[in-house]
Design brief:
Layout: H1 4-9, H2 12-34, H3 42-66
Helix pairs in contact: 2-3
């Protein structure tokens, strides 16, 4: 699991790339869950939370840039 401090040290481009990668993983996890091939169900929750953390951080940065 990625910590919030680790995310805050990344640049906007790195966050965007990680967001794309996590969305891809989320899609694959959903597909595995639908076909009953999911080995670690808790990973779905971790990925969702990390996506939310990245989006929140991106929103904070864009609001700070506008101000």
């Amino acid at each position: 699991m990625v910590s919030t401090e680790d995310l805050r040290t990344k640049t906007d481009d790195q966050l965007s790339a990680e967001l794309i990668e996590l969305k891809r993983e989320q899609y694959n996890l959903r597909f595995q869950a639908a076909t009953n091939q999911l080995e670690k169900p808790s990973r779905i929750k971790e990925v969702r939370r990390t996506i939310a953390q990245i989006k929140t951080l991106q929103n904070e940065r864009s609001a700070a840039a506008k101000a």
